[in-house]
Design brief:
Elements lengths: L5 H19 L8 H43 L24 H4 L9
């Protein structure tokens, strides 16, 4: 059997990549309302986790600064004036608000 010419190999590669690209560009169906709600809740949890991480970082920086100042005092060195920073605010526990439609059930229709 003769080896294929380079032009033929290139043509086969082009066809194969076109077929693969067609599968990659296939359109997915739109997400359901349940999937959208789950994604929104996941995003809210991630945002809350970021707030908790910032709070924990703030508290640890306060502890490090207090330890540094205590070490300076113990060594008899002058303690520089602390820099004013915003207070650490605890974000509290995660509470995901229910969507308005799900929170309030529809009232029954009045009979005539």
């Amino acid at each position: 059997m003769k080896p294929l010419p380079h032009a033929c190999c290139a043509l086969i590669a082009a066809v194969a990549s076109t077929l693969a690209a067609g599968a990659a560009w296939a359109k997915l169906p739109p997400p359901s309302d349940e999937a959208k709600a789950k994604a929104a809740e996941s995003a809210a949890k991630a945002a809350h986790a970021g707030k908790v991480a910032n709070y924990q970082l703030c508290k640890s920086m306060d502890r490090v600064a207090a330890g540094y100042q205590a070490a300076l005092r113990k060594a008899g060195k002058p303690v520089p004036a602390p820099v004013d920073t915003p207070a650490c605010t605890d974000p509290g526990a995660f509470v995901y608000p229910l969507p308005v439609a799900a929170a309030a059930p529809a009232a029954p229709a009045a009979k005539k």
